[in-house]
User: What shape does this take?
Amino acid sequence: MSANTSRFPWNLLVGFVLSIALTLLAVFVAFNTDFSKSIILGIIGTLAIFQALIQLFMFMHVTEGKEGIINVVNMIYSVFLALVIVFGSIWVLTSGHASMH
Amino acid sequence: MTSHTTTPLEYKTQQSQMNILGFWIFLGAEIVLFSTLFASYFVLEHNIAGGPAGGDIFVLKDVLIETFLLLTSSFTSGLAIHAMRNHDKKGLLIWMIATLLLGAGFLYMEINEFLHFIHEGATIQTSGFTAALFTLLGTHGAHVTFGIVWISLLLVQLVRRGITEKTSSKLFIASLYWHFLDVVWIFIFTFVYLKGMVM
Assistant: This one.
């Protein structure tokens, strides 16, 4: 590394270790606990959201730059669209609405 | 970090700032693209048409190796950008090459996994479940492949031109793309593999 190296990238290392830990925790919850299936799905889904937030904030620095707030609003809106598409499709196509006469 | 006191090189020009903002908006569109593939998968995952279900063909060990390869490559591309901001061309190059190798390792695992699926009688034409599965995984894998080619070409530019306002902004954008692929994989890992093996 060059002479003007700034400090060690702790935020990256912490994000990496947390990602590995959350992955292993999700595997543990999925295979080694006696929770009901819907509770397991809720827990591992929450862990996945935390991992995505780690990537966004600790690795991608979403709030960085002059347009940081625009990035955040754009990401929130995209996630909103994704949720509408996923849950809307499941609701309309698998909850019996498609088979009603 | 020096980035807190001075503007990083990749944000120096108005054009670079606009490119980075534009790429974030593109990533928003990518989120919507993958959400449609996830939606198709969740709708079709129980339609196995007499073929294998997820729990029959997923192998936890291989999936975990893929996950750790991609998580580590996301970390190394973060280290590459950290090196870039310290004007450390050699560090940037080494960490980006490490990222590419880990990405190639991921692709190797994924292609073997596809061959395993086909060997187990799950081709893209077997059922609604396998069609949605191969489309979702294949789209992600195609993104990884594109990322490897893209970053390789950027590294050629880096070697020739050094860390400039232009090369730094391009590599920064490529690193955003790479982290994004890891985000998509986290959801595939959780809602395709873990869910498929437990439910």
Q: What stands out?
A: The first helix of chain B runs from residue 14 to 44.
